[in-house]
Amino acid sequence: MSSRFSGLTPLLAPRSVAVLGASSDPTRISGRPIAYMLAQGFQGALYPINPNRTEVQGLKAYASIADLPETPDVAIVAVAAEVAAPAVEELGKRGVKAIVMFTAGFAEMDESGEAAQAKMVATARSYGMRLLGPNCLGVFDARRSYYATFSSSFDSGWPVPGRIGIASQSGAYGTHLYTLARNRGIGASLCVMTGNEADVTVGECIGWLAENPEVDVIAVYAEGIREAPGLIAALETARAAKKPIVMQKVGRSELGTKAAKSHTASIAGDDAVTEAIMNEFGVYRARNSEEMLDIAHTATRKIYPVRNTLGVITVSGGAGVLISDVAETVNLSMPEMPLDAQKKLRDLVPFCAPRNPVDATAQVSNDVTLVKTFTESMVRDGGYTSVLGFFSMTASSRRWPSIREQLNAVMTENPGRLYALSVIIPPAGRDELEADGWVVHEDPTRAVVAIDAMGRFGAAFAAAQGAPPPTVPAVTLPAKNPSEAEAKRLLATAGIASAPEAECATADQAVAAAERFGYPVVMKILSPDIVHKSEIGGVLLDVSDAASVRDGYALLLERAKSAAPTAKIDGVLVAKQLKGGVECILGIHRDPVFGPMAMFGLGGIFVEILKDVVFRRCPFGADVAEDMIRSIKGAPLLLGARGRKKADVKALAETLSRLSAFAVAAGPRLQSIDLNPVFAMPEGDGAFAVDAVIEVGD
Description:
Blueprint: H1 9-12, E1 16-20, H2 32-40, E2 45-49, E3 55-56, E4 59-60, E5 74-77, H3 81-94, E6 98-101, H4 111-126, E7 130-132, E8 138-141, E9 146-148, E10 164-168, H5 171-183, E11 188-193, H6 202-211, E12 217-222, H7 228-240, E13 245-249, H8 263-267, H9 270-281, E14 284-285, H10 289-299, E15 310-314, H11 317-329, H12 339-348, E16 358-359, H13 369-382, E17 386-392, H14 400-413, E18 418-423, H15 427-436, E19 439-440, H16 444-462, H17 484-492, E20 501-504, H18 507-517, E21 521-526, E22 539-543, H19 546-563, E23 571-576, E24 582-591, E25 595-602, H20 607-610, E26 613-617, H21 622-631, H22 649-666, E27 670-680, E28 687-689, E29 693-696
Parallel strand pairs: 1-2, 1-5, 5-6, 6-7, 10-11, 10-12, 12-13, 13-14, 15-16, 15-17, 17-18, 18-19
Antiparallel strand pairs: 3-4, 8-9, 8-11, 20-23, 21-22, 21-23, 24-25, 24-27, 25-26, 27-28, 27-29
Helix pairs in contact: 3-4, 6-7, 10-16, 11-16, 13-14, 18-19, 21-22
């Protein structure tokens, strides 16, 4: 394995295991790992450590770590919290490479527990040891009969051999997922549960699984991400290895979104940001555990169509309609069969429906050869990359062996496609079909979702490397939040254009500026302390003559003094009023984990209500920016829907990519940027920031 994640190998694939606090009772927390490994035949060395016993579960016991005959790769620590910390020191001195810490009572409890945990981890790191947990349910790898866990799930059965690896921040839910997989006959042989993540993170575990040649598919249960570099490296590794990741991400907390000054910050959150990271690397977000396992199991076929199309053969017209509805919902393409192929099928069965779904009708029960004829036509004439057969209870009929033979012949003669069946069949029959090469789902709607996921993986694996982000000059942020005019000057150094404007300290200056730009103009109160000017009436539109400019100047100063008497007022900003553009919002929010995140959406006052926005980790090139712009639901307003003029999407994308580069260049003091609105003018006329708010921190 590569050096990036190979440091976890002693933890996740050890050759020798010590159990600190080992119990002779195989039902106790400190007895279960030994009992499990003995029952399943762990081939490495097992060393129980218990000063009160000479023998534990038939194995020689040792009084202390120092008494061990060799240095184990990993030590399972199952002792009280007050004993655990000194044990880490002893294990480090002995040269142990890794610890699985079952012990609870640390950061999950209180501040003193958090301090004790930090001290313990510092000790482990000083010796180069990796620590899983504390407060974790451990890890198991059934292929090696390695069970560094006290989960009771194995009381009801052992893992099904397979090539799915599970990484979970929750121990109880990690083993819940494994048990669900086992009960469905899905092969998930390896599961690691990270607990408090004081040292080893779920991201690092994903990376180790991505580098593991015995793992093809990675399933993840995550509550929140606290460490970005390891996760980003892991997702990059998995994508490069073409290993799909399906993640069940729970929790929609508000960490890092308390900066109410920023539209972007109020919309962003842990969940939105994490989802943006998943989208960037092609991770499929499962809505529930059932969907996660459906997708992970389907992915073990290792067929990921880049341009996925679904062909359906069915014996039920109703099922065909249902499948079509779901495919449309998930945007999975179901092109019609070629007209000449439809005619040939209709000549064979005049009352069939050959468009796609292809309804072969119950006639296949009278002539089973029709199954091959219809399915083969779909594959060869329709050219679909994925094929779903709905045969329901037919799989329990006396005709099924012959139908199965016909279906298998098509699959054998036309390899390289994803073949799935929706049938109701006993587990033994399901296993036979899986062995034939079919993916079996009882529910056809779940089958469609899983098939669609395979295409999404394929598209992510095939995606070209994006263009490099633009280069911008070094950014020096002011000590305090800049005014709107100052913010625009800063952004202009990165090539971000704004409408022509002037800072005016007197009414006469405002009139001169307005006549220079041409009427109508926009007038705004200029103050670093008043962020959302429209909320206090601090913006005047359609100011059309000199008298209105003078009146507007006085009115803005009066409103500012009334609404914010302590605010610093720098005067009034007069700007050329742009017409004919589409209002957009471009923003930056500094996420506490992932750093600067860019946001794009349609602008105006409804952005926080509709939240039709997209996020992306900074920086990125103009090609990625254009993909972001085209991905929102409101994109047709920019692309010429209903006879509208097309907006200058290229200029808008360039502005967004330059903003992402500016955010990185500005460094960690940059908290947020709001450009709301940015006018995307008609194609060829550019994009201009009309308002700009920059928030800086310590």
